[in-house]
Amino acid sequence: MLIGIDPILNADVLYALRAMGHGDDLIICDTNFPADSVARQTVLGEVLRMDHPAAEVVRAVLSVYPIDTFVDDAAARMEVVGEPDTLMPVMEEVQAQITVVQGPKMIGVERYAFYERAKQAYAVIQTGERRFYGCFALRKGVIPPEAA
Fold first, then answer.
1. What distance in Å separates the CA atoms of residue 86 and residue 74, rounded to the nearest whole number?
2. Which molecular-function annotation in GO is an example for this chain (predicted)?
């Protein structure tokens, strides 16, 4: 345990978040996502695990991780197949966590395009989320000198 660090953030996740740079993508996905095979193609090269619901994982990650403010696609969700405008409850819960840190509204990304974005990411965190479409991409921003 560390003071000021959310206890669900394990050492492997903290290492990856710290190692990432501005513009790197982090994928936070549900239990059905092909996390292991996709993660093998990322910069980190292995899947990270946080066995908690997606919104809890996003909340914990965003307690230490800035979202990019220079791009329009800094926060994204996998679209529901055939229903790109549908927002599932898990998506609304994650958006609420992003909103708490003044993050942007998530954009929708078609399923296979999301897989391709994930393969180009720095890291993949597979959560314990069992609801469908609990898959998100968060692009890392910067921390200004006065906030360090």
1. 20
2. L-fucose mutarotase activity
d(C-alpha 23, C-alpha 43), whole Å:
13
Taking the mean position of all CA atoms in its chain, how far away is CA 8? 15
Catalytic residue among 24, 65, 115, 133: 115
| pTM for this prediction | 0.96
Domain ranges of the chain: 11-142
Of the listed 15, 22, 36, 72, which one is catalytic? 22
Q: Buried b / exposed e across 22-43, counting CB within 10 Å, b at 16+?
A: eebbbbbbbeebebeebbeebe
Q: What is the pLDDT of residues 48-86, one digit of tens each?
A: 999 999 999 999 999 999 999 999 999 999 999 999 999
What kind of fold does domain 11-142 have according to CATH? Answer: RbsD-like fold (3.40.1650)
Residue 115 appears among annotated catalytic residues: yes
The single residue listed with the structure tokens 């966590």 is 97
